[in-house]
Amino acid sequence: MDAHADAASKQSTGTLTVFPVPAFQDNYLWVIDNGEDAVVVDPGDAAPVLAYLEARHLTLRAILITHKHADHIGGVDTLLAHFNVPVHGPAHEAIACVDHPHNGGETVHIAAPAMTLEVIDVPGHTSGHIAYFLGAGAAGAPHLFCGDTLFSCGCGRLFEGTPAQMLASLDSLAALPPATLVHCAHEYTLSNIRFALAVDPNNAALAAWQQEATALRAAGRPTLPTTLAQERATNPFLRSDAPAVIAAAQAHAERPSLSREAVFATIRGWKDTFR
User: Is 71 a catalytic residue?
Assistant: First the structure.
């Protein structure tokens, strides 16, 4: 899985580079650049972004926001004090710094670095959460910036949305090309894998990913980006129709039959209390 192995350094894909700038305890603030101009996704903290830009002589040209939580928007005002740039974000969340609100189905056009991103509505973690999809082209493989909706082997907590909404959101992301690189906003992989193995203990791909992810973290390297192909094989929240996941949900709920939505709701609730 070359995507994982390359993630600890600048990941050059075509003429654009995508890099996870670490912040707080486990956040990644994703920077997309062409060697001169840059875009940052979910800058919860300005200091590491400014340091990254300065060290690489990059000029910030735009900010992308996926949702309203402080660890995703907290650094925006400071960045705006240094750079007069547009702030793109969800139309259905009250975020004062967003001056370019977007609905799902719209596109975001950025002149430098040149890119066009598709906006996808993904309610669930919050009611107005959006994701950004950058198709294959100058960025090489397709890229997904999904905030707190999809994680490696996990998904976001349902703070505002319903299980049905989150399931539909994850379905829309899972329908993207399998080679899509998934840029999650948190390094939750190892803890998510522990839960995924409780749900699906005989999943060989999941066991292999646990070994690889453990080695990456031991070396101080990110486990991200992952790919949608990887998530389809290992993430129980994208596999609510898989027999092993259905059986685990039925056993946990102590019910002999569950709808697909109920399977998802059961494992999401199980994860909330899993230790």
Answer: yes
pLDDT digits (tens, 9 = 90+) for 88-127: 999 999 999 999 999 999 999 999 999 999 999 999 999 9
Q: Cα 73 to the chain's mean position, in Å?
A: 15
To the query of whether residue 200 is one of the catalytic residues in this protein, the response is no
- Is residue 186 part of the annotated active site? The answer reads yes
Q: Active-site residue among 4, 102, 183, 186?
A: 186
| 196 touches 156 (CB < 8 A) | no
Q: Is the previous residue joined to 113 through a cis bond, with omega within 30 degrees of 0?
A: yes
In sequence order, the 6+-apart residues with CB closer than 8 A to the CB of 27 are 42, 44, 45, 71, 185, 186, 187
Catalytic residue among 125, 129, 143, 183: 125
CB neighbour list of residue 28: distance below 8 Å, 6 or more residues apart: 20, 21, 22, 183, 184, 185, 186, 187, 222, 224
